[in-house]
Amino acid sequence: MNGSIRRSRTLALAGTLAVLYPAGAIWARTAPPFAQLLREAREAPRITALDADVDQALGKAEQARARPNPSINLYGENFVGDLRRNARDQQQTTLQIDQPIELGGKRAARIAAGDAGVAVAQARGIEGRLAFAAELARAYAAAEIADRRIALAEDEVQEATDVLKVARALVAAGKEARLRQVQAEAELHTMESDLEVARAQRVGALARLAAMAGSPTPYTGLAESLIDRMNARPASGPVDPMQSAAVRLAQAEREAAARALTVQQRSATPDITAQLGVRQLRVANGPAVVAGVTVPLPVFDRNRGNIAAAQAELQGMEARAAAARLEAEAGTRAARALIAATDARGEAARRTLSTAEEAYRLARIAYEAGKAPLIELLSARHNLGAARSVILDADMARFDARTTLARLAGLSIAGEPVQ
User: Fold this and answer.
1) Share of residues in the chain with pLDDT > 70 (%)
2) Could you give phi then psi for residue 140, rounded to 5 degrees?
């Protein structure tokens, strides 16, 4: 019966995988080592979007350097009129060029604002790359933890199978009631179900990792243990929170807001338009040169609303920059404290695991000798499984804390600078 149930569940899992992935795609490739994966992910959609934002800012900065275009005007006067009064004898044709001239340093302010926009896009790109590297590392570690959970579930299935064999032998010898065998069978079915869930979670974790990395096909495994690699690395050096990507981004946004305010202030200065043209008179022997200047009167629009809005934006950016500095300092302290706490938690979890393994070993010896009931063995096995699961949770927490600190330091979890 157990074999048929196991086969049916295996077929169901295979059917699910066949629906999720086309034939052959599931065997596509193994995820490369994390450092290589991070380099390959430069073409991932999220990174491409960050690059596009920088290109957009560069385009706007280039456009900010453009000067106003001149315009050409052609005027005709007195070309239709009363022939008896000789109106057409006074026909005039004027060709004129108008050139707007920016005053008050508008172009320089606009160029400075464009350059500040580029700096913001670049800072946002670095901050986004660091966030992406941290999320990719967590996805890689999650896939590794999913692998370990499968191994843990397989061990528990094997242990439950061994317990069932012992229970059947004791029942056959008349030393246990039939109820104990049923309890052991139920326990085995539960472990088999947990194993299938772990396998499904592994498929999902690998699929998410492939999607983040921009891989068109899902991964089937990992090329390295990123958690073990993290454990082998020495503790990171001092981290300057004032040099974190978030603080630099906030400072760049504050500078951009200041440049935008200058643009609005300079825009209040009216521009002039210089005019130069040639007028042809029908009654004259030659052309006449005409020139002029157009000066707008700032009576109704003095750009006060835009200036006030830019001032408010600058105040907001200054407050955000101050908040970013405080958060970076607090985040660095919290990350270091969390690393120490998760390290202590990991050590405690390993001591608990050692105790649980010994308790399970003794409970099994006692049960097989008929000196302890099955309920004690099952309880010891549950405690052992819980201790193993706590080890995995502690490893993931330690990894997450170190990933956070690496991001604050401007590094990937592999210790490489992210630019």
Assistant:
1) 87
2) -65, -45
C-beta of residue 416 within 8 angstroms of C-beta of residue 407? no
User: Bridge partners of 280?
Assistant: 93, 287
Mean pLDDT score of the chain? 85
Residues 6+ apart with CB under 8 A from 377: 163, 360, 363, 364, 366, 367
Of residues 234 and 43, more confidence is placed in 43
Please, what CATH class does the domain formed by 28-67+102-268+303-408 belong to? Answer: mainly alpha
pTM over 0.85: no
Cα–Cα dist 297/159, whole Å: 90
Q: Which residue ranges make up each domain of the chain?
A: 28-67+102-268+303-408
